[in-house]
Amino acid sequence: MTAWAARRGEPPTIVREPVRGWRAVDLRELLSYRDLFYFLVTRDIKVLYKQTVLGFGWAILRPVFSMIVFSVVFGRLAKVSSDGIPYPLFSYVALVPWTYFQTSMTQSTGSLIQGARLVSKVYFPRVLLPLAPVIAGLADFVIALSIVAVLMAWYRVAPTVGVVFLPPLVVIMVLTAAAVGLWLSILAAQYRDVRYAVQFLVQLLMYAAPVVWPASLIPAKFRLLYGLYPMAGVIEGFRSALVGTNPMPWDLIAAGTLSALVLFITGLFYFRRAERVLADVA
Amino acid sequence: MTHRVIEVEHVSKLYRIGLAEQRHETLAGACAAFVRSPVRNFRQLRALGNVSTAEADAEDVVWALRDVTCSVSEGELLGIIGANGAGKSTLLKVLAGITEPTAGRAVLRGRVASLLEVGTGFHPDLTGRENIYLNGTILGMKKVEIDRRFDEIVAFSGVERFIDTPVKRYSSGMTVRLAFAVAAHLEPEILLVDEVLAVGDLQFQEKCIGKMGEVARGGRTVLFVSHNLAAVGSLCKRALLLENGSIAAEGPARGVISEYSSRSISESAFAEEPIDAPAYFSGGRIVGGDTLESGGELLVELGVLAREPFTASIMWRIEDALGVPVGCGVPHLQLGKFQELRVGENTVRIRIAPLPLLEGTYRLSFDLNDRGMMHIQRLEDRLRFTVAGCDPAGIGATLPSKWGAGSVVIPFDIEVVAAS
Question: What ipTM goes with this model?
Answer without folding.
Answer: 0.82
